[in-house]
Amino acid sequence: MTVLASAVDVTGPEHTAHRAVMLGRLAELDAEHAKALAGGGEKYVTRHRGRGKLLARERIELLLDPDTPFLELSPLAAWGSDYPVGASIVTGIGTVEGVECLITANDPTVRGGASNPWTLKKALRANEIAHANRLPVISLVESGGADLPSQKEIFIPGGALFRDLTRLSAAGIPTIAVVFGNSTAGGAYVPGMSDHTIMIKDRSKVFLGGPPLVKMATGEESDDESLGGAEMHARTSGLADHFALDEPDALSQARRIVARLNHRKAHPDPGPAEPPKYAAEELLGIVPEDLKTPFDPREVVARIVDGSDFDEFKPLYGPSLVTGWARLHGYPVGVLANAQGVLFSAESQKAAQFIQLANQRDTPLVFLHNTTGYMVGKEYEQGGIIKHGAMMINAVSNSRVPHLSVLIGASYGAGHYGMCGRAYDPRFLFAWPSAKSAVMGPQQLAGVLSIVARASAAAKGQPYDDEADAGLRAMVEQQIEAESLPMFLSGRLYDDGVIDPRDTRTVLGLCLSAIHTAPVEGARGGFGVFRM
Ligand code: COA
């Protein structure tokens, strides 16, 4: 009875058209992902291989249990910036000896693996994920340290990287560093602050200052090996706990360390789950190209939850927000999904109540965004839309159950906040290629600017140039549109990745499994004052 019915005609012209647009966007996305995979490009990749070294992703593959998935995070970091796509580091979640771990790997083919401002943001985000979900951290290190030309952006905030490692350790979350090459200066504190370290014969170089710096500072003549080689650190300084003969040996020793961590998940794996009744492929044709055209988010829910089984909460009240209970890969979830875009007072109150229920029941929440924000206008202001929106934002801010957000369509204005946007600390946030997010829609924003400029000219008694206004509006519209797109937002680390809609269930399932490493406990009270 609670299995969702579908009204989608998968052979109809609308579905076909939406699907064609989505496939076009996915092809663009693939091209950007390929840039991250290419690292520093052929020249540097060939040089790296010529030195007998493995690439960052190959190291990860050897570390993981065979044939298990790796959920790569933020692959588009630095997109649209002056730095290469991917930000010279690979981060993600994978399984080592049956333990879900957060793995980071410097990409030494990109400017010596040096850390630029986007590398730092991406690495800090990875630490945040490890901390929130109690995932052991494995750092595969080979980096030229700070990207020196951008040092002013990273030196001071960058200290947080080493702070995080020791705070993870203090929280009982294991940290392991495997050093494949250079780990100089500040980089030396990655092994320095980790619980377990592995260094590789003739490869690892871990020192506060290399031979030229030492010569400058003290006049002492030295060499790489005596300052920071694996043999020295394993036999003399004691910084290396494990001495590996080569890269595969180091990775297999890392696996042995994880096998002995005795790191237990707070919640057991729920076991096999029933797949949805409808094909994931059909998710390509649900979101229209023009986000002003409404679509039923139950069509998305039906294609991601177990057995397409969904117990809707308050279906007749506040219908432009769909709320209900389901399971996803066996994990219980509450779903909040926007329908028709606008959040009114009833929807906001319904959301606040639903979020409180999920907290009482220790049930994680999934937010499917397609909202243009809270309703404006005299009737709605007089009806208390601000206080009702505030209720929803209070509930989402003080909720303690894990939140997963997926931007599938629009995510504008305070609606982005109420639906657990980035600033509201969802455990994970992903976007579909169809998503758009900004303070408001591009046309509306350009229109507001124009009205303000016209009023300002009138107040000064100046004439208003309509032709210039039209040009300005078009320019602003274009700029805001470009800044609302998922690749741009992903480049700035405002999400954890742009995903193929067909992968949504798998990605959310992997996240839910990682999340359940830590105890899932809702807030019993502890909300702020609900303005009634
Ligand atoms: N900041 C900015 N650019 C850097 C960099 C850094 N920290 N480290 C390396 N690069 C650049 C190099 O200038 C080079 O650019 P180019 O190919 O356009 O000339 C590119 O990255 C590759 O470096 P290269 O030295 O050819 O690679 P390598 O693999 O032989 O050596 C290092 C890598 C990291 C050992 C070496 O580059 C190095 O010692 N870098 C400086 C390390 C350091 O002292 N960092 C300060 C930390 S606070």
Defining key terms:
532 residues, alpha/beta, 2-enoyl-CoA Hydratase, Chain A, domain 1, 3 domains, seven-stranded mixed sheet, 41% helix, binds coenzyme A
Description:
The protein has 532 residues and is an alpha/beta fold. The chain has three domains: 1-36 and 274-435 and 498-532, 2-enoyl-CoA Hydratase, Chain A, domain 1 (Alpha-Beta Complex); 39-259, Alpha-Beta Complex (2-enoyl-CoA Hydratase, Chain A, domain 1), CATH 3.90.226; 440-484. The chain has 20 helices and 16 strands. The chain has helices spanning 13-38, 42-50, 56-63, 117-133, 151-158, 160-170, 189-193, 211-218, 224-228, 230-237, 247-259, 298-301, 345-360, 378-382, 385-398, 413-418, 442-459, 466-484, 486-491, 504-515, and strands at 70-73, 89-96, 99-106, 137-143, 175-183, 196-200, 242-244, 311-313, 321-328, 331-338, 342-343, 365-371, 373-374, 403-412, 428-431, 436-438. Helix 13 runs parallel beside helix 15 (385-398). The protein is globular, with a radius of gyration of 25 Å. It binds coenzyme A (COA). Coenzyme A is lined by residues 111-112, 114, 144-148, 182, 184-186. Coenzyme A (COA) binds at residues 111-112, 114, 144-148, 182, 184-186.
